[in-house]
Amino acid sequence: MACTFSSLKYPGRAPEGHILLRAFVGGSLQPELFSDDDRTMEKNVRDELAALLAVTALPQFARVWRHPNSMPQYHVGHDARVKRIELELQKFATLSLAGSAYHGVGIADCVRTGEEAAETIIKGIS
Ligand SMILES: Cc1cc2nc3c(=O)[nH]c(=O)nc-3n(C[C@H](O)[C@H](O)[C@H](O)COP(=O)(O)OP(=O)(O)OC[C@H]3O[C@@H](n4cnc5c(N)ncnc54)[C@H](O)[C@@H]3O)c2cc1C
Asked: What are phi and psi of 34, to 5 degrees?
């Protein structure tokens, strides 16, 4: 589904002259790939990286981690549904929602909604 260059995002993730790549496989649109064994998954990723990035050297190491059903899926109408939920929440001054299910799945979105939720609750109790 995607590949990020972790060692470009954050310093110290790979020694000089090397790159740490993180590839994502499966997701809600290709759940069948999730049942591949680690070796097959790694080989498929390496084949795709060879085609996309011309990376043909064998990696110094590769690890597979599985996170089943870990990403919220926003369907058509998500925005309106969240607005309706938030309207209902206004009845409860000290109840707030935060996290990946509402306004974006990125860490920055989760932190922002967490801060906003905390501020709403503080206002509600003060
Ligand atoms: C493989 C993967 C890679 C990702 N990479 C990136 C990235 O590079 N950059 C980026 O910005 N975002 C990335 N994301 C997205 C981001 O990490 C998540 O959207 C974000 O961490 C979700 O935060 P959250 O607080 O909503 O949920 P979570 O981090 O899942 O926190 C929910 C917490 O609630 C706890 N919990 C659940 N149920 C209960 C219960 N009943 N009682 C008590 N506690 C409970 C859980 O144990 C968990 O600690 C990635 C996500 C995945 C899955």
From this structure: -65, -25
Q: How far is the CA of 2 from the centre of ligand 1 (A)?
A: 18
Say what the pTM is: 0.87
Measured from the Cα of 114, ligand 1's closest atom is 25
Domain boundaries along the sequence of the chain:
2-53, 78-125
**Which of 100, 112, 115, 116 should be mutated for ligand 1, with most atoms under 8 A from CB?**
100
Tell me the DSSP string of 28-48.
Answer: TT-GGGGGS-HHHHHHHHHHH
User: What's the pLDDT band for 67 if we cut at 50, 70, 90?
Assistant: very high
CA-CA distance, 32 to 47, in Å (whole number)?
18
